[in-house]
Write a sequence for this structure.
């Protein structure tokens, strides 16, 4: 019986302690192969193009916006994205998964759960926020147009402004917004744009 091809993994830039932990987790699993580590945001596109890893583990905080997840997955469809974040809410994770991430996990997630996410991601599967947190349900990926509308909503544009920018009717914007709220497990635009509770406390 031939040897199983290892799952190739690239790891983005994290603080030193977490970076060492991730490298150790990958090195200890014989089914995984680390092809690049400590990848800075400016180097990411080149690393994904050259190494074509099965899974890339990135710091969600290094992303400019959630829309960047869609851009990366469209340009590099062979690579699944596993995002690690500081105390992510289920809504934040639902957005990232809806844009195409395989999973969004807290940086404090246990080793076995990170490994499980890597293996699932390598097979093209997703961990939804419901799977991860038992929280808000996501009901599938956003469509390309829903992603466009979400990006505009996050810029706090009005329905009329969004309609003008995207050359669609205001009613179509409302329809897309309703679908977005349902998929992300929120009830309204206010809930979608509300900062996480800990962020609100830090701002005081």
């Amino acid at each position: 019986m031939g040897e199983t091809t290892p799952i190739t993994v690239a790891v983005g830039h994290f603080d030193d302690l977490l970076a060492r932990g991730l490298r150790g987790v990958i090195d200890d699993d014989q089914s995984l192969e680390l092809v690049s580590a400590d990848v800075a945001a400016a180097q990411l596109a080149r690393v994904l193009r050259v190494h074509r890893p099965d899974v890339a583990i990135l710091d969600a905080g290094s992303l400019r916006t959630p829309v960047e997840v869609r851009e990366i997955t469209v340009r590099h469809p062979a690579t699944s994205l596993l995002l690690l974040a500081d105390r992510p809410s289920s809504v934040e994770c639902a957005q990232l998964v809806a844009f195409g991430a395989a999973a969004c996990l807290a940086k404090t997630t246990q080793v076995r759960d990170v490994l499980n996410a890597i293996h699932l991601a390598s097979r093209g599967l997703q961990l939804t926020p419901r799977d991860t947190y038992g929280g808000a349900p996501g009901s599938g990926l956003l469509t390309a147009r829903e992603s466009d509308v979400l990006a505009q909503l996050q810029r706090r544009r009005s329905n009329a402004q969004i309609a003008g920018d995207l050359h669609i009717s205001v009613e179509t914007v409302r329809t897309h917004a309703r679908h977005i709220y349902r998929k992300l497990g929120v009830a309204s635009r206010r809930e979608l744009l509300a900062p996480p509770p800990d962020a609100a406390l830090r701002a005081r």
